[in-house]
Amino acid sequence: MTDKKYSLLKTTDDHPEEIVAFNKRFCSDPCADEVLESLRGRGMDDREIAIAFRLIARIPREWETEREPESKAAKRRARLAAKLRKLAAEVENDPDLSGLCFGANTISFGTPNEDREGLISLADCIKEGLAELELQLRLINAVAGNKPDDQKHTPDRTIALKKFAIREIFAFISKTEKRALNKETAVLTSILLSENVTANDVTQARKSERRKYYRD
């Protein structure tokens, strides 16, 4: 394993832990060279591979987020909305932060109100985010209503993490290919989940997906 070969996967302290951990496991895997060679041979450049790997590292968290019930999401957003409401008021009344403004290509500090055309203050940014959050909260409450949790409508998101990961990884690394990248998908899924995943597992996980396309 050479530094040059894996330089595209270098991370810093600023990268999320999940990305650092996945890239480290990948670089130490005996199939790493073969996977990189295959992806490059099928048209992915180093930038595309690096982006795909970052997306792959986030899959378990994305899976957990998609499984979140509406009632739990509503409570989480309500807590965050309360924090933002308090923060917006504090920023607006702060003698320093109240003068912090943003434009399309500039950051301004201490600009008088009459000279803020085309600028938006930090406080207003927070308020706009809060307005969007509260809109989403109302939509969730409209769906969830006041029914007990076991009677609320929850999307069918019970797909197992392994199948979810296989489908996501396959989509991330596949372009217009004559041969499906089942082996490469299996290797990357194995590294991500720290369990043995075979090319046949990939084939089985994608069967229902392909049938859906054929029916459509």
Instruction: Name the structural class.
Output: mainly alpha
- Biggest sheet, open or closed, and with what strands and sense? 3 strands, antiparallel
Low-confidence segments, ≥5 residues, pLDDT <50?
146-157, 211-216
Q: Rg, please?
A: 23 Å
Approximate helicity band: 55-70%
Number of helices: 9
> Strand content of the residues, in percent?
under 5%
Order of helices and strands: HHHHHEEEHHHH
Distance between the termini: 45 Å
The gross shape turns out to be elongated
* Arithmetic mean pLDDT: 80
Kindly report the spatial arrangement of strands forming the biggest sheet: 2-1-3
Number of strands: 3
Question: How many separate domains make up the residues?
Answer: 2
